[in-house]
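hey m, so remember when u said the tokens were messed up on ur end? i reran from scratch. heres the input so u can diff it against urs
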Amino acid sequence: MPGALEAAAAAAAEKPSSLGGRERAFLVGVEFRSRPHSRPEGGAVAAEDSAHQAVRIPPQARQAKSASKTLRLETEDHAVPFSAEESLAELRELTLSAGAMVVGEVLQRRDRPDAATLIGRGKVEEIAAAAKMAEAGVLIFDHELSSSQLRNLEREFHCRVVDRTQLILDIFARHARTREGQLQVELAQLEYMLPRLAGRGAEMSQLGGGIGTRGPGETQLETDRRKIHRRIKHVKEQIEDVRRIRSQQRQRRESVPVPVVALVGYTNAGKSTLFNALTSAGVVESSRMFATLDPTLRTVTLPSRRDVLLSDTVGFIRNLPTTLISAFRATLEEVQRAAILLQVTDATSPTAAEQMAQVESVLRELEALDKPQIHVLNKIDLFDERTRSRLKDSRGSVHISASRGLHLDRLLAAIDAHLDQDRVERAWLRVPQSEGKALAQLESRSIILSRQYGENETVEFEVDAPESLLRRLSRYVVAPARQPAARRKAVRKKQPPTGR
């Protein structure tokens, strides 16, 4: 059989590609009709039911239903899984993001998974013939495969077989730019590979037991496992160094308290486009899934003149591999420490409600679900005028178009309303005209409601300003502006002009 595999690989290498060397992929979707009667503790779904993972629809998604027929939603308490067709369409997008070309696909529905091949002997023969006709070099399954299933399928298909998790890991490896991102991807790949080493060929078989066959006492499999364990330890140490550097940078930021607002959401929801629209940062925007892996922080000034740090993060996806979540925990710490989460959703997607629920699931795993959230329903420019006119914002949701810049002012106002850190207060200040720095800070960091030039070359202001600014300028504060006007006048007459 190794000879057959080598011959198939050589034939695939010699075959010219019609798209300049892009790999030809054949997709296999699987739907199992039988479901377990109960879920394991903690909400986990059994492996055979992963295609039917039930999700809860947030109320913001139900509100969107009333505005557009494009969102297929049901009641909040009803479980709505991704359909098999929608899941296969998502796999198609993932395959394109990995740089491959889809040459065929098939969807199988069966009662339960086959232990040896997942899809059964008859379907294996059918798919093998279809993949050979399509000249496919790799088969991609929309399901996680065990090591024995991978081995059996590769033997039958005479080409590489990749499951959904491997595909996502490959995309992450393709898009990682920084050293941190590359380390995190490598850790996830090693942790995925470790339990799948067994039975990958004769070179990993046990040593013989007869005379003259007893070896040094370690099989090739054990050697490979030891090497991977050693590499995992080394990568984890490097990631820990990255986390320590991030912690030091965070401590420096927190010494000058600026709240963090993190963008979260399903992959390809438009987070990077929104990030660029608000910050002009110029990060990579792409319609491909997982175009953003490395976190970016930029300052945004709100209508109240408060500054916040906006963080662009990696997108989430259905059944996100746990190895990825653990490997990217250093990156996702920005989500855990954020003051507000902006959950960005593609409002035009037919699976928008399910995507929002999947994001909620990942946030729960990150222990960040209790943080204040604003649901940002993006891409409304793709709706017609009549549909857009019916879209209604609420306190917890805003409809925008990041690419066209529609309603971004409403989003900034919503962030202002949700932000509890460094609250805005109204105050009355008397500042000498010679204090240029204080006057400049008031002009740039506060909303000036009134300005009067008083005696002794002073300027009296009524302002809405952040608490941090009022603390820095406390020696100029005459009285809080929320006091009655008569009281403010009395205080103003009593207090002498304030000097340096």
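this time it looks ok to me. The chain has a mean pLDDT of 76. if urs says something different then somethings off w ur setup not the seq
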